[in-house]
Design brief:
Layout lengths: L1 H9 L9 E5 L4 H10 L7 E5 L3 H8 L6 E5 L16 H18 L3 E4 L13 H5 L2 E6 L6 E9 L8 E6 L2 E4 L10 H5 L2 E2 L2 E8 L2 E13 L6 E4 L3 H14 L7 E7 L11 H13 L3 E2 L2 E3 L2 E2 L5 E2 L4 H10 L4 E5 H8 L7 E5 L2 H8 L4 H7 L1
Parallel strand pairs: 1-2, 1-3, 3-4, 12-13, 15-18, 18-19
Antiparallel strand pairs: 5-6, 6-7, 7-8, 9-14, 10-11, 11-13, 16-17
Helix pairs in contact: 7-8
Length: 369
Amino acid sequence: MLQLAAIIAERQGHGKQAPVIYVSGEESVQQIGNRADRMGIGTEDLYLYSSTEIEDIMGKIQNLSPLALIIDSIQTVYLNGVVGSPGGLTQVKECTSALLRFAKKTDIPVLLIGHVTKSGEIAGPRVLEHIVDVVLYVEGEKSSSHRLLRPVKNRFGSTDELGVFEMSQSGLQAVSNPSEIFLSEQHLESDVLAGLAVTVVMDGSRSFLIEIQALCVAGSSASKRHATGIQSSRAEMIIAVLMKQAGLALQENSIFLNVLRGVELTETAGDLAVAVAICSSFLECPVPNYVAFLGEIGLGGELRTVPRIEKRVNTVAKLGYQMCIVPKSAEKALASFGFEGMKIVGCKNLKEVINTVFRQNGRHFQEML
């Protein structure tokens, strides 16, 4: 938020100069100043103030007419005359309402920072989210330097957007190719890898390439099924279809599935990639790293099209993939888009996909069935 305040302050027009005010109830001005120095923020139009009393904050900034007011955080400020301690249900509600009235009256944008619970939701009463106009979540794993900026509520526009950033010494930096986050380093350097397939998932209006990994182990006394990042029921269904409709003898194999980088695969567009990864591991036939897979699998082994498939294929083409295997029903429509350097291959069912991908290893494939 300090970085955002600096950006707003630095991008003023040539008219009357106005500051951006950052109010902290948790840290001193010196602490925030040290952080600003580390991030290389040098603008003189960013004012820092440390206070926890709403009346004091609004009184101080009234005459400054700032471009924006930032409160860090809503759980640390309080209103005189309101029952409860800072961060309590009543205080949070009344403080937010007071700041809302202040914003509407003065036409000064107010940005609030809210604490989050262990489950990742904004701490305190839900009324906080009901009062404000926009709710944004900054998400990220402890072990990763990447952060996702996700809108949950937006009275001024769509929530189908997603910002992808990387945390660095100087602050958040935009990630130009988010798909690199979810692709393994080995895949970028190897021609072929067994038990690995690439698909495209959508998050809002953003599309990402992700890798599905599969490992089939034969000869265990009790076959196991374990899926990380994939719904267990969906994985079991795909395995059953492979056995029944494609003829793969997976009954005595333990199968382990994983979506790289801890991503949760919640849509059916990745069905085909899951099936191909399992086939690749079972047949010990690597999948070329220039091929991507899109499609939903039905119980009859047929391939079904998925929403916004043209945008998914476009993402694959931009990243230099040479072939994309899609459902036959979507092949003609996709051909009209003319993806440069990309071959669109339509398949009706899983058997056609297996013959297409593992054609060069056909003899080995027949021996394994």
